[in-house]
């Protein structure tokens, strides 16, 4: 589906702080001049169609004792789909993208403990037979996961 | 860096896939957790306050919004200057994430990563020129890795 102008207004309105009140959808709908059922229905449709990948709290797991680490693999082309399935099977893999480079698979590991990262990397190396290149962040300059819709 | 207590942890498990799409979502969570809706809201507010939740909101699929060119730009920046320059690159309005990360020599000489999203590769290339100009002679090799497929995008999943 292509998001229509109202869908885009909804996405833009929901990239900031969602209200912590009894009926938060009603509050947001009111500010958009639509009714609550329409807002909830459109959110459900956009999630079903994967225009939105999520709606809810975005956890910063490092603030609660866990870890996020970017990692990459150089996957032989003829094994790409098989390796993607092996990597994606781990619940610790939060995102995974194919990219154009010798390192052609880039994924983010999110684990509840810092030690969980090494365990997840070991499991991926064992299941794929490939070397995982980990790129832990040494410093964060900026993170803003908002894009104008 | 405190580990969450039991109720916070259960609240994370209950909401990591998303907030319930019902008129009273905090009441629904309260019912699942056996606490009051006020307690749910107080705990969410506290996690926002201490940075355990960045925000509560929508995560759009870049492609569906027309951002079809998603480039991870990577730069080999002199160690002595990378932190100051990283702050400046991160402040550019078209950079959504910017980090310093370790090099993996000889395969990977880059230590500064900046995500740039655009509606075409030309648009991203123009933005990369701006980053290159900002980095100037502090930067040696550079590359940009466009994503060509989303293989997974589920976000955090801790076990219940």
Q: Please report the distance between the alpha carbons of the first and last residues of chain A.
A: 14 Å
- Reading the helices and strands of chain A in chain order gives HHHEEHEEHEE
> DSSP strand (E) fraction of chain A?
15-25%
Can you count the beta strands of chain A? 6
Q: Which overall shape of chain A is indicated by the principal axes computed on the Cα atoms?
A: elongated
Strand order of the largest sheet of chain A: 3-4-2-5
Please mark out the parts of chain A with pLDDT under 50 across 5 or more consecutive residues, or reply none: none
CATH fold label of the largest domain in chain B: Alpha-Beta Plaits
> What structural category characterises the helix and strand content of chain A?
alpha+beta
Structural class of chain B: alpha+beta
Helical coverage of chain B, percent range: 25-40%
Rg of chain B, rounded, reads 20 Å
Largest sheet of chain A: 4 strands, antiparallel
Total helix count of chain B? 5
So what's the oligomer here?
Answer: heterodimer
Any overview of this molecule?
The complex is a heterodimer of chains A (149) and B (160). With 149 residues, chain A is of the alpha+beta class. Chain A folds into 2 domains: 44 residues, no CATH class; 75 residues, Alpha-Beta Plaits. Helix content of chain A is 36%, strand content 25%. Chain A has a 4-stranded antiparallel beta sheet with strand order 3-4-2-5. In chain A, helix 2 crosses helix 3. The longest helix of chain A is centred in the last third of the chain and has 14 residues. The model of chain A has no long low-confidence stretch (mean pLDDT 93). Chain B has 160 residues and is an alpha+beta fold. Chain B folds into 2 domains: 44 residues; 84 residues, Lrp/AsnC effector binding domain/regulation of amino acid metabolism (RAM) domain (Alpha-Beta Plaits, 2-Layer Sandwich). A 4-stranded antiparallel beta sheet of chain B has the order 3-4-2-5, covered by helices on one side. The longest helix of chain B is centred in the last third of the chain and has 15 residues. Classes of the chains: A alpha+beta (149), B alpha+beta (160). At the A-B interface, helix 1, helix 2, helix 3, strand 1 and helix 4 of A face helix 1, helix 2, helix 3, strand 1 and helix 4 of B.
């Amino acid at each position: 589906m292509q998001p229509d102008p109202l869908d885009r207004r909804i996405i833009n309105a929901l990239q900031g702080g969602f209200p912590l009140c009894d009926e938060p959808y009603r509050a947001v709908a009111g500010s958009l001049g639509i009714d609550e059922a329409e807002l909830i229905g459109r959110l459900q449709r956009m999630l079903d169609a994967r225009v939105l990948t999520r709606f809810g709290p975005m956890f910063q797991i490092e603030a609660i004792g866990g870890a996020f680490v970017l990692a990459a693999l150089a996957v032989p082309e003829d094994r790409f789909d098989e390796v993607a399935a092996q990597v994606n099977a781990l619940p610790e893999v939060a995102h995974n993208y194919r990219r154009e480079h010798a390192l052609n698979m880039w994924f983010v590991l999110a684990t509840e403990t810092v030690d969980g990262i090494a365990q997840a990397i070991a499991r991926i190396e064992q299941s794929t037979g490939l070397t995982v290149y980990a790129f832990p962040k040494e410093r964060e300059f900026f993170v803003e996961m908002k894009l104008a819709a | 860096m405190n580990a969450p207590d039991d109720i916070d942890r259960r609240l994370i498990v209950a909401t990591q896939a998303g907030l319930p799409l019902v008129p009273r979502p905090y009441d629904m969570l309260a019912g699942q957790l056996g606490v009051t809706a006020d307690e749910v809201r107080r705990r969410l507010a506290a996690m926002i306050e201490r940075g355990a939740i960045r925000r509560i909101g929508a995560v759009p699929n870049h492609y569906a919004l027309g951002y079809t060119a998603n480039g991870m730009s990577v730069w080999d920046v002199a160690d002595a200057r990378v932190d100051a320059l990283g702050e400046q690159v991160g402040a550019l309005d078209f950079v959504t994430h910017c980090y310093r990360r370790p090099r993996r020599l000889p395969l990977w000489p880059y230590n500064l990563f900046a995500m740039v999203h655009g509606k075409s590769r030309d648009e991203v290339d123009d933005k990369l020129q701006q980053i290159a100009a900002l980095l100037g002679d502090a930067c040696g090799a550079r590359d940009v890795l466009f994503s060509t497929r989303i293989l997974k995008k589920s976000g955090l999943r801790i076990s219940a």
